[in-house]
Design brief:
2 copies of one chain form a homodimer. By secondary structure, chain A is an all-alpha fold. Helix content of chain A is 67%, strand content 0%. Chain A has 2 domains: 48 residues, Arc Repressor Mutant, subunit A (Orthogonal Bundle); 95 residues. The two termini of chain A are 33 Å apart.
Chain lengths: 177, 177
């Protein structure tokens, strides 16, 4: 989640979880481009105002929920073996987008992208830099052009090519260049 | 255009041109995700059936029209200097997506991608292979992961980073790897 998670007891967590469930269900049923905030609120049984207050618009909501499973506070692979760590990290992203629901949410979010950086991109770039930036091995452009960009491009346009070998191939190329 | 262009005189060319104009106008006004075939037909003053017959659905229409300006029959840069040719080719793609209308059409198309390869991707990969494949310098994955993927990713999510230096940077990385 990109919004700061406040621990206000079970109520807000339950609301969030029912919204998330409603979004995933509606994306599966209708496709991300047809999911609106009123629809989500109705399905989740919450007031539309609380959905608008949290995300502002449907695109932001979809982008945020699409990144949910790649929790930016999760532990990153840090064995000290740069190549192995980058491969493990790319594998997480590939695994994430191999789930059709996540790829669908990504496509829905991409339809409304382009105004400002997405939370998702910011998180992934920060993670890549945390793994490879300190060593001076890769900069932000290497991470975007060499790893995140190709994986996301394939997730959108060629989802059936998100295979086991992709992380190894991309990491070996980006480290060789 | 991906569909074979039949030279049936001026009539069908005029219809196509009015459809194209209607699509571009509607995308600018409403955003690609809200452009439907009935809307386009109405604006273009043609029968919806002829639009459906040509493209089948709105996503295919948008993808096709988004690639219009990158005519797959145009002459490719072929000076014999591989690096220079690849840079010139990437520059064409970057220039194409720097036009906001083309980036908007790309985002609209990406919302419905993922079922099969887009015509656009097929054309770009074939072009890349025509320039760099014969020399054995690059294969299809190099072209997707090293050139087309990062450019399209940036066009969707970071359009303000489609700068002059990007083609040089990408080509130098892909040739070094």
């Amino acid at each position: 989640m990109s919004a700061p998670v406040r621990r206000t007891g079970g109520r807000s967590a339950a609301v969030l979880s029912s919204i998330r469930f409603a979004v995933e269900e509606l994306v599966r049923e209708r496709g991300a481009e047809k999911v609106t905030i009123p629809l989500v609120a109705e399905r989740a049984g919450v007031n539309p105002t609380s959905v608008y207050r949290r995300w502002g618009d449907a695109a932001t909501m979809l982008n945020d929920i699409a990144t949910y499973r790649l929790d930016p506070t999760r532990e990153l692979p840090r064995t000290g073996d740069l190549r192995a760590d980058l491969i493990a990290w790319c594998r997480e992203i590939v695994e994430h987008y191999r789930k059709p629901i996540n790829a669908a949410l990504l496509r829905g979010g991409s339809a409304s992208a382009g105004e400002q950086e997405t939370e998702c991109l910011r998180n992934r770039r920060a993670e890549g830099l945390a793994i490879a930036g300190e060593a001076g091995a890769l900069d932000a452009d290497d991470i975007i052009d060499g790893l995140v960009g190709p994986i996301v491009y394939r997730a959108i346009f060629l989802p059936w090519t998100l295979d086991e070998d992709l992380p190894v191939r991309l990491v070996d190329k980006v480290l060789a260049a």
